[in-house]
Amino acid sequence: MKRLRYLKDKLREDITFVVVPGADSKIKKLRLPKYIIQGTLAVLIVSTITVNTALVYYFINNKRLSTENGQLSMQMIDQKDRIVRLEDLYSSQLKLNDDMKEQAQKVASVYEDRLSELESLETTAITLIAKLNSDHDVNVSVPTSRSFDRTENTENLPDEAIGPLLSENIEDSGELEELLALIEDDEISLLMEQQLDEYSTLISEVENTLDFLECKPDLKPVDGRVTSGFGIRRDPVTGRRSMHKGLDIANSRGTDILASGAGVVTYSGYNGSYGKTIVVSHGYGYKTVYAHNNKNLVEVGDHIEKGQLIGEVGNTGKSTGPHVHFEIHFEGKQIDPAKVIN
């Protein structure tokens, strides 16, 4: 009870505020209960503490956010640098890819030309061999092609090499890498060079063979009867035994004399007992003589083909009747024409 009474007494206590406005004004008194003032002070103190605590928290949080913001800014700068580097790398890769594509297309173009050259050589070789077989009744076999065909895979190249090589538009990066790898290893080039060399050699050999066969004096120059062969015989004029160094082929005056082989005329004129004479150099060590002619139809320096008309059968010089005296010289020596002509 005493405590309750004490509290009531305390609550009844007042605090008086005296206001003196001026000399002429009356003094004013303001009496407020003590508990109101104490409560107001308590509220102010609590509010001050709360506000200060909030300010401290805000300052600390602001400091933390500023630090994080700085770190994020640095990360953004690093990220931008990485993006720039990636863009540069991407541009470089695009340029490299374009360069590779351009290189691959150039090489593909070169190999396309080589393929065309190879096909041309192959066709030429087959044509020449066919001509050789047909004209000279031989049976030279056509070599088996390695077939760098544009539509079929080859035995000598991997399948994956054909597509990139012959593609008109090389776009796929895998094809680029495969083609460039083959180019770097030089597999295609080696195979094509080998094939080209083989065909070039074959063509050269066939051409030389054809040239030799065309020049070889194996064609009988005149249709007619052989009246005297190569070797020792009794001379029809002197009656003495002597060496006859050619074939005498009889026919009527004016009969065509044909070149026994292709060559160059080295003599065309009158030659003593031989009468009107033609001498043809055929190369490969061969030379032919056509004597006792009625007419010579070629001149020195003329290039003639095998079977070409060069003169007419006659009876000029030391002769007992119309015929052609035909000689074959090989490497400076006279040989039996009957062993050469067909």
Task: Describe the protein's architecture and organization.
This protein is α+β, with helices and mostly antiparallel strands. It has helices at 2-12, 34-136, 159-166, 173-185, 187-215; strands spanning 14-19, 28-33, 225-228, 231-234, 241-244, 247-250, 256-258, 263-270, 276-283, 286-296, 303-304, 309-313, 323-330, 333-335. The strands form 3 sheets. Strands 3, 6, 7, 8, 9, 10, 11, 12, 13 and 14 form a 10-stranded antiparallel β-sheet that branches. The protein has a two-stranded antiparallel ribbon with strand order 1-2. A two-stranded antiparallel ribbon has the order 4-5. Strand 1 (14-19) and strand 2 (28-33) form a beta hairpin. The protein is rod-shaped, with a radius of gyration of 60 Å.
Write a brief structural summary.
With 342 residues, this protein is an alpha+beta fold. It is 48% helix and 22% strand.
List keywords for this structure.
alpha+beta, 22% strand, 342 residues, 10-stranded antiparallel beta sheet, Glucose Permease (Domain IIA)
